[in-house]
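Duplicate of #3305? Posting structure anyway:
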C-alpha cells in the first residue's frame, strides 16, 4: 500500500490555492493538510504537522517565499509556484525540487509532484538506513542506566549540576552531568549549544527566529552570545 504524502499550500491568491487543492485531490496518495494565505500562517502547520511537500508562492506581502524558506530548518520537498520566471535560478539554489510557472496545467503539476515524492522517499530511506547503524548513548539517571539513540533526544536543559534530557517519546531523564561536556560529546550527532541552559538536536528543529527556535511546540530561547553561531549553522 502506497503511503500518503502531506501537502501544505502557501499562496496569497485564493484562486491559486483553490486550483492546487483541486489538483492534489485528483492524486490518491496526496493529501492537503493546510492551505495558507501567508507564510506566517504556514509556520503553525510546519511546527505541528508532518509536511512532506510544500507548494510555495514567491511574491507575497509581509514575507516572500524565498525568505520564508530560509527560516525553515527541517525543510520538506519544496515546489515553488509563481508567475515570475526570473526566480527560477533562485529556487534551484535553495534546493527546491521544481518550479511551476503560473499558469500551469495538471500534467506539469504531476511531473513536479513525482519529483517531490522521489525526494521524500529518498530522504526517508536514508533516515531508516542511518537509524539501523546508529550508535547509542548510555545515560545514568534514577538509579538506572538508559540506552538512548542520539536521534531520539530532542533537547537538553541544564539544571545547575544536573541536566534534563527530553526525548521523542515524552520521556525525561535527569542525570548528573554538565552541559559543557555534553556540548563537545554530542556535536558529532548534530547537537548544538544555543543558550547557556540549552543544547538542542538540530535535526528536530522545526522553526526559528532571531531570539528563539522551536522543536515541535516547545520554544527554546537563543542566547545572545550564541546567536551568530546559530545563525551561521542554520544558514539563516
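Output from current build:
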Amino acid at each position: 500500500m502506497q503511503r500518503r504524502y502531506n501537502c501544505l499550500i502557501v499562496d496569497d491568491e485564493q484562486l491559486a490555492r483553490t486550483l492546487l487543492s483541486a489538483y492534489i485531490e485528483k492524486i490518491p496518495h496526496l493529501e492537503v493538510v493546510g492551505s495558507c494565505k501567508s507564510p506566517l500562517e504556514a509556520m503553525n502547520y510546519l511546527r505541528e504537522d508532518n509536511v512532506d511537500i510544500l507548494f510555495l508562492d514567491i511574491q507575497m506581502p509581509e514575507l516572500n517565499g524565498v525568505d520564508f524558506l530560509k527560516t525553515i530548518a527541517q525543510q520538506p520537498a519544496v515546489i515553488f509556484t509563481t508567475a515570475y520566471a526570473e526566480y527560477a535560478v533562485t529556487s534551484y539554489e535553495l534546493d527546491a525540487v521544481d518550479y511551476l510557472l503560473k499558469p500551469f496545467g495538471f500534467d506539469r503539476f504531476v511531473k513536479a509532484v513525482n519529483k517531490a515524492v522521489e525526494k521524500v522517499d529518498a530522504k526517508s530511506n536514508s533516515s531508516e538506513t542511518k537509524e539501523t547503524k546508529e550508535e547509542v548513548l548510555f545515560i545514568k539517571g534514577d538509579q538506572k542506566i538508559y540506552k538512548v539513540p542520539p536521534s531520539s533526544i530532542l533537547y537538553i536543559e541544564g539544571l545547575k549540576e544536573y541536566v534534563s534530557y527530553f526525548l521523542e517519546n515524552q520521556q525525561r531523564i535527569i542525570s548528573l552531568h554538565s552541559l559543557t561536556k555534553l556540548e563537545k560529546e554530542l556535536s558529532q550527532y548534530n547537537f548544538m549549544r544555543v543558550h547557556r541552559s540549552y543544547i538542542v538536536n538540530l535535526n528536530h528543529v522545526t522553526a526559528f527566529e532571531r531570539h528563539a527556535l522551536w522543536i515541535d511546540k516547545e520554544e527554546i530561547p537563543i542566547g545572545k552570545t550564541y546567536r551568530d553561531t546559530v545563525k551561521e549553522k542554520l544558514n539563516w
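Confirmed duplicate; merging threads. The first strand starts at residue 5 and ends at 10. The chain has a mean pLDDT of 88.
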